[in-house]
Amino acid sequence: MIRVLIADDQPLVRAGLTALVNLEPDLEVVGEAGDGVTALAMAQDLRPDIACLDIRMPGLDGIAVARRLCGPDVEAPIPVLVLTTFDLDDYVFGALEAGVSGFLLKDAEPETITTAIRQVAAGNGTIDQTLTRRILREFVQRRSLQPVSTSRGNGVLTSREQEILLLLAQGMSNDEIARTLVVELSTVKSHLARMLPKLGVRSRLQAVVWAYQNRFVDLPESR
């Protein structure tokens, strides 16, 4: 069972998300919060498998809460999925820098939201597909998130890890990577566990950001 914390300052939205999650046989809401301070305290006390946070909340906003739950200096991070009505670049950039593993708009399909919860809880990053192209391009051009240089990254990654990173950047799941490389799923997970620390990142999503930022893969073409 995947234990979920939901934080949103709008009671109707919070109730709707809770009902949606609890309908799934493998998901369970273990806590609800209407502000950032409460969300942080509940997350630290309950240690859920994933925290679903709104960005605009009283007390502490979602980005501030995320930074304390999954930021670079957190020893035992809790994966965070941001669910918001705002797709402003600065919000997305701030969430990525805070260490979140996923970013979705609240108008996403219910199945998309529950799938994202499972992916993030399993250590797989996700970002709303309507934002991906713009966000990757703008983020890598405007931000300097990762301290590892391209040459150092190429030097420390094995050839298999480089293959996996390229497939991650194509949006593949662990299962899809395993099928593409004709290896066991456990093998992919082992490579990821070794690769992420080498890049100075904690999530698949930030590994993809690193790959684009450091020109390990080409930037998406503008449309």
TrEMBL record:
Could you tell me which Pfam families the record lists for this protein? GerE, Response_reg
Q: Where is the HTH luxR-type domain?
A: 150-215
Q: Where is the Response regulatory domain?
A: 3-121
The record ties this protein, via InterPro entries, to: CheY-like_superfamily, NreC/VraR/RcsB-like_REC, Sig_transdc_resp-reg_C-effctor, Sig_transdc_resp-reg_receiver, Tscrpt_reg_LuxR_C, WalR-like
Residues where 4-aspartylphosphate occurs? Answer: 54
Recorded GO MF terms: DNA binding
The alphabetized UniProt keywords are: DNA-binding, Phosphoprotein, Transcription, Transcription regulation
Q: Where is the signal peptide?
A: none
GO biological process terms held by the UniProt record: phosphorelay signal transduction system; regulation of DNA-templated transcription
UniProt-recorded name of the protein: Two component transcriptional regulator, LuxR family
Organism name: Xylanimonas cellulosilytica (strain DSM 15894 / JCM 12276 / CECT 5975 / KCTC 9989 / LMG 20990 / NBRC 107835 / XIL07)
